[in-house]
């Protein structure tokens, strides 16, 4: 198999979609290198299935919970492990867990989290062969559940972002930096970024 054939079949980890939306170069560096020190949210104590179930049930979200469930979208060429999938009477719910966020923060500065949730939603729909009833972000800091509508516009936006990511990966071309320069201040890759 030649290199062009290998690259045209590139599969992208869903977590890198979030990174690409935050800063395209971070996703590129992570795709071609393996290591990066853990972020603060990675160091946060892990939640348990029981803890997550209590939060979800307090919002009347019931069903069987599958933690860190592998999902894959053949149509997008992405894969990952969604924080949780809830199945209740043939209804599929997607749950992404964040340390701290809010609806307003998601709209202003956390759009990359919405794209990540959208990718998990599409991948879960293809994995389970059923439409998603609802998608949620659980905010651990407050024990809050935010319902997120995954409509056609954000799905189309995600598709375009994945195509753009694949273009940079296939061409092995460095994508542009984030236009938000404050994101560079604490970036692990800032010294390598030209």
Give the topology, please.
Elements: H1 3-8, E1 12-13, H2 14-22, H3 24-32, H4 40-43, H5 49-57, E2 64-73, E3 78-88, E4 91-98, H6 103-108, H7 111-128, E5 132-139, E6 144-148, H8 152-171
Parallel strand pairs: 1-3, 4-5
Antiparallel strand pairs: 2-3, 3-4, 5-6
List keywords for this structure.
alpha/beta; Lambda Exonuclease, Chain A; 42% helix; disordered N terminus
Question: What can you tell me about this protein's structure?
Answer:
This protein is α/β, with parallel strands linked by helices and 194 residues long. It has one domain: Lambda Exonuclease, Chain A (Alpha-Beta Complex). The chain has 8 helices and 6 strands. The protein has helices at 3-8, 14-22, 24-32, 40-43, 49-57, 103-108, 111-128, 152-171; strands at residues 12-13, 64-73, 78-88, 91-98, 132-139, 144-148. Strands 1, 2, 3, 4, 5 and 6 form a 6-stranded mixed beta sheet that branches. Helix 2 (14-22) crosses helix 3 and helix 7 crosses helix 8. The longest helix has 20 residues, at 152-171. The chain is globular.
């Amino acid at each position: 198999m030649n290199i062009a054939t290998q690259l045209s079949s590139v599969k992208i980890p869903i977590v890198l979609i979030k990174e690409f939306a935050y800063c395209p170069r971070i996703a590129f560096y992570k795709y071609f290198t393996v290591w990066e020190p853990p972020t603060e949210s990675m160091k946060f104590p892990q939640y348990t299935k029981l803890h997550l179930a209590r939060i979800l049930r307090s919002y009347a979200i019931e069903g069987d919970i599958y933690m860190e469930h592998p999902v894959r979208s053949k149509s997008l060429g992405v894969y990952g492990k969604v924080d949780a999938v809830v199945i209740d009477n043939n209804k599929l719910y997607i749950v992404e867990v964040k340390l701290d966020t809010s609806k307003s923060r998601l709209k202003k500065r956390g759009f990359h989290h919405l794209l990540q949730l959208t990718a998990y939603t599409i991948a879960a729909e293809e994995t389970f062969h059923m439409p998603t009833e609802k998608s949620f972000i659980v905010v651990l800091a407050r024990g809050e559940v935010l319902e997120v509508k995954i409509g056609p516009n954000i799905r189309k936006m995600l598709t375009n972002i994945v195509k753009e990511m694949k273009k940079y990966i296939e061409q092995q071309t460095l994508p542009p930096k984030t236009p938000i320069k404050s994101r560079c201040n604490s970036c692990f890759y800032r010294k390598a970024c030209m």
